[in-house]
Amino acid sequence: QLENLNVDVIEAGFPIASPGDFEGVKLVAQTIKGCTIAGLARTLKKDIERAWEAIKYSESPRIHTFIATSPIHMKYKLQISSEQVLEGAVEAVRYARKLCPEVEFSAEDASRSEKEFLYKIFEEVIKAGATIINVPDTVGYAQPEEFGRLIKDIKENVSNIEKSVISVHCHNDLGLAVANSLEAMQNGATQIECTINGIGERAGNASLEEIVMALQTRMDIYHKVTRINSTQIYPISRLVSKLTGFTIQPNKAIVGKNAFAHEAGIHQAEGRIPP
């Protein structure tokens, strides 16, 4: 269904997580044509090798490696220094690039990271071969204006940024994942990581259907196009709901059963007035 939707990239899973994950990613890589298939990996050699073994069957494989860069994550989660994080990131990207022509690097919790450190780590991983740098709002902390500014600042302060695609990955804890993603796009991001119906951990991720339809509906503002086949949005939304067991709320934008339905009399009248 994602193939029919014409997505550019499918992040199929985390191959080292379990044998089931590995086989699932491998099957997607073997089956799906016409888009990139990515496998997740921590900045560990064993993760990267396992990811490559799963995705190497794709006609367009990608290794996506990540490590936390915020002070709070480095101190309490990783318990290592920023120098060690930088060294590990560079080594991981360099190794991944030896295996795979396309490598994405994510600075986990980027929105709470020190900007100067982000500039440095992005510059170094691009030198090491990263073709995509991803800026996640991992805990859904950012506000649209500041997140857009972060993307703008990265674009202006990473000297070799033109050698890499800028990507963002936003969570919806404050209900701002779509707004943050659109603002990032306005400031230089050209890849948006999103999900059908906005599914994801905690409050979810940026909703693919909302981003796509915002771009299509307000072309006058965004001036961006995607290759998404929007006629497939509703069917895949219903399929994801059925498979996950997550009911789509009636007032969900774009795909809820009440979307675009007028109930108030004045709205019904306005809906009938010719343009």
From TrEMBL:
Q: State the Pfam families in the record.
A: HMGL-like
**Any one GO MF annotation of this record:** 2-isopropylmalate synthase activity
Ranges for domain Pyruvate carboxyltransferase come to 1-234
Give the GO terms filed under biological process for this record.
Answer: L-leucine biosynthetic process
Show which residues constitute the signal peptide. none
**Keywords of this entry:** Amino-acid biosynthesis, Branched-chain amino acid biosynthesis, Transferase
Its Enzyme Commission number(s) read 2.3.3.13
Q: Does the keyword Signal apply?
A: no
Classification via Gene3D superfamilies: Aldolase class I
The pathway that the record names for this protein is: Amino-acid biosynthesis; L-leucine biosynthesis; L-leucine from 3-methyl-2-oxobutanoate: step 1/4
Alphabetical list of InterPro entries matching this protein = 2-IPM_HCS-like, AIPM/Hcit_synth_CS, Aldolase_TIM, PYR_CT
Q: Supply the name of the protein.
A: 2-isopropylmalate synthase
From which organism does this entry originate?
marine sediment metagenome
